[in-house]
Amino acid sequence: MRNLILILVLAAVSNVAFGTTTDIWVRISGNDDSTSYIQHSQHQVVIYTKLNEMATIWDMTDLEVVHTVDNVNFFSLIMQHEYDCKNEKQRMLTIAAYAKHMGQGKIVKRDDTTSGWQAITLGTKEVLEFNLVCRANVT
């Protein structure tokens, strides 16, 4: 966990120092079908509210091959998730499907409907994100 936080900090410092971008995607997991990333900016990794122990984070799934839903083809998804750190739950706030890899190209499908709360499932990228945004903020 601490190694992941260190990687995030070093990646942000190196990108800002070289002037490449203020927003970067940091790889958190991957397999033969897809790679998952979280968004990191020079300003903040997540929005965390200690008062009610909630956190939001942007993540991206880059797909190896084109996927089709409702006759719409896409190569990547960018989502915003909200985490309830106290009750160990998460929900999706928004999702957008992109025509090209790494969130590039036009948005071909979008849904801003907030999903219901779901328990964090072991073995998913949500576990990694939960640990990053919730466990890293425990004082």
Main pleated-sheet profile: 8 strands, antiparallel
What would the principal axes of the Cα set say about the shape? globular
> What is the count of β-strands?
8
Fraction of residues in β-strands: over 45%
Helix content: 10-25%
Q: What structural class do the secondary elements suggest?
A: alpha+beta
What's the assembly state of these chains? single chain
If helices are DSSP runs of H or I spanning 4 or more residues, what is the number of helices? 2
Counting structural domains, the number is 1
CATH class, anyone?
Mainly Beta
- Please report the distance between the alpha carbons of the first and last residues: 15 Å
Mean pLDDT value: 79
Describe the fold and architecture.
- The chain is α+β, with helices and mostly antiparallel strands and 139 residues long.
- It has a single domain, classed as Surface-adhesin protein E (Lipocalin, Beta Barrel).
- It contains two helices and eight strands; from the N terminus they run αββββββββα.
- It has helices spanning 2-18, 125-135, and strands at residues 23-30, 34-41, 47-49, 54-69, 72-84, 89-98, 107-111, 118-119.
- Strands 1, 2, 3, 4, 5, 6, 7 and 8 form an eight-stranded antiparallel β-sheet that branches.
- The radius of gyration is 15 Å and the shape is globular.
